């Protein structure tokens, strides 16, 4: 993208200035072009819980993917913030379910930013993953979400499950809910939970807090009312 090329060129010219190869960076003050992507919709905590519960309990088969498999995928996306490619690349060796603090390891080779991360798992996610592992008895080298592949249209899957659960396909601001909305929702859940901003940024795996709070995090109506009260 234009933003990516500009950032790369600025970084190179900053180095050239620091190394005294040029007098100063001639594009230091050039502003980044505005993002062209539309904002993703977000789910409220109540909608997120309903999506997981209904999808898991109804267990509707779509293609070769069961509702329970989709529910666990949605749950992991909405409680760890992992992106689609990261989730579908997870191996069972990346899931640590022993001890009091279960976590999922995002290997550097599958992480978008190229950095390994250990994302904590909620007790519900850990419990469902234990049940899944017990039922299928996978090898450590098996993919966790083996029924999915990189061409699986997760946007269509979540739209279908939203309709089954009776949840609108757009949020209160009119933004469409897609699979990546689960990551946006995760960061919004954190931002509305009164935990320190630095913790939110770390769990979102962002290097810049402006990306966390200006692009991803949205406020929920009940949080706004609580703040006013």
Describe the 3D structure.
The chain is mainly alpha-helical and 229 residues long. Helices cover 48% and strands 4% of the residues. The chain has ten helices and three strands; from the N terminus they run H-H-H-H-E-E-E-H-H-H-H-H-H. The protein has helices at 2-18, 45-58, 67-80, 84-88, 123-136, 154-164, 181-191, 197-204, 209-216, 221-228; strands at residues 95-96, 103-106, 117-120. Strands 1-2-3 form a three-stranded antiparallel beta sheet, with no helix packed on it. A hairpin with a 6-residue loop joins strand 1 (95-96) and strand 2 (103-106). Helix 2 runs antiparallel to helix 3 (67-80), helix 3 packs across helix 7 and helix 7 packs antiparallel against helix 8. It is globular and about 65 Å long. The protein starts with a helix and ends with a helix. The model has no long low-confidence stretch (mean pLDDT 90).
Per-chain topology:
Blueprint: H1 2-18, H2 45-58, H3 67-80, H4 84-88, E1 95-96, E2 103-106, E3 117-120, H5 123-136, H6 154-164, H7 181-191, H8 197-204, H9 209-216, H10 221-228
Antiparallel strand pairs: 1-2, 2-3
Helix pairs in contact: 2-3, 3-7, 7-8
What's the gist of this structure?
The chain is mainly α and 229 residues long. It is built from ten helices and three strands.
């Amino acid at each position: 993208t234009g933003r990516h090329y500009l950032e790369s060129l600025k970084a190179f010219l900053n180095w050239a200035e620091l190394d005294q190869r040029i007098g100063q960076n001639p594009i230091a003050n050039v502003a980044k072009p505005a993002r062209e992507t539309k904002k993703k919709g977000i789910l409220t905590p109540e909608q997120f819980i309903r999506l997981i519960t209904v999808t898991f309990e109804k267990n509707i088969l779509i293609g070769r993917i069961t509702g329970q498999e989709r529910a666990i995928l949605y749950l992991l996306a909405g409680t760890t913030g992992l992106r689609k490619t990261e989730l579908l690349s997870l191996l069972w060796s990346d899931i640590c379910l022993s001890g009091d603090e279960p976590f999922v390891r995002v290997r550097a080779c599958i992480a978008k930013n190229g950095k390994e991360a250990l994302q904590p798992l909620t007790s519900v996610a850990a419990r469902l993953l234990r049940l899944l592992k017990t039922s299928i008895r996978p090898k450590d080298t098996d993919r966790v979400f083996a029924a999915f592949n990189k061409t699986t249209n997760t946007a269509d899957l979540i739209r279908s499950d939203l309709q089954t659960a009776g949840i609108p396909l757009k949020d209160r601001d009119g933004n469409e809910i897609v699979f990546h909305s689960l990551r946006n929702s995760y960061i919004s859940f954190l931002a509305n939970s009164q935990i320190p901003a630095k913790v939110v940024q770390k769990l979102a795996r962002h290097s810049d807090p402006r990306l966390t709070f200006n692009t991803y995090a949205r406020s929920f109506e009940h949080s706004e009312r609580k703040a006013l009260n």
